[in-house]
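Researcher: Structure for this, please.
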Amino acid sequence: NIMSIAPRRPWKALIVALIVGLAFGFGQAGEPIENALQMARDKLRSRPSGGEVVLVAIDDRSVSEIGNAPWNGDRLAGLVRRLDAAGARRIHLDNDLHDVGSAVQAAELENAMSQAQAELLLPARFSIDPVSGARADHPPPDRFARHAR
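Model: Predicted structure, token format:
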């Protein structure tokens, strides 16, 4: 008889399951197990770095020596030239290039970009008008974009 196997008070099992769920949810009792599983998964999927990607970030030391961003066109031109001379195949500049200083500084950056052997990638940004929901695209200035992707 199937009725004799089923518990007579199913709400007790529900309460126990609720208490266990709350203990693991709020008390984060399962977090050490989850962390151990994640570390094991990461170890299984790890592989040696090929050294093909180098990230050149602007750190606190750079800012103290060079000054705060945004950098003008001469500084960015120097960076492009040094990265290109170091053999970079691609250079991603994540800078807003609409204001790079004077016309001379902008020309210096454009010149460095035109001479670079490396493929240059520039950011294209967009904004959403909070009232209308309309999207406005903000591509890099044409004078720089023609030397990049």
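Researcher: Any notable elements?
Model: Residues 10-26 form the longest helix (17 residues). The mean pLDDT is 84.
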